[in-house]
Predict the structure.
Amino acid sequence: MQHGIILNGNGRPAPNGKEPHRADGPQHDAAPAPYDDESKIRLIGQHFRQIMLLLGLDLSDDSLRDTPGRVARMYVQETFSGLDPASEPDVTLFENKYQYGGMLVEKNITLYSTCEHHFVPIIGRAHVAYFSSGTVIGLSKINRIVQYWARRPQVQERLTEQVAAALKRALHTEDVAVLIDAAHLCVAARGVGDVNSSTVTSHYSGRFANEDTKREFLASLK
């Protein structure tokens, strides 16, 4: 198997609301007990309002008055909806009744995520391929799997591994390839200000570890 980063855990809060001790470093701030979505929206809105006030913004302005609530709803229901395990897509498998044995590639999947270091967007495309082990997955489900893991604070290396692992679980095969090409606004809109660069990460396992198979996959993306 060829990949970038091995994951430790799934990044979800422990049932008791506290993050377990990590062998790779000091314990982080404990996560609070789980809240329902309405409570999250209310509390995030309150905190974001304070951020805006600290920045010196006039929240009596009709353009800004409802911004805290809008941002809170966007965070909970859209941008970070992948943090809710209940939103993980249900995957239905179908028998590969036509005995298709070739590579199946779903390319140019639009991807929006958020850099966990600066909380600014990651925008790119994911390309996914697999060989059937006897079943196939609905094409839209591949997009939904990518979106689910993208909709949370992320680093691209981990996102690549999470998408690959989810596809392997769903498809019951190791024959999976994932390539993500994305622009990070933490690079483009701040700091070095490089608007032309993008980051490419990949995962190849099973038959895709073979160089000829990998080349066939990469050629299909051109």
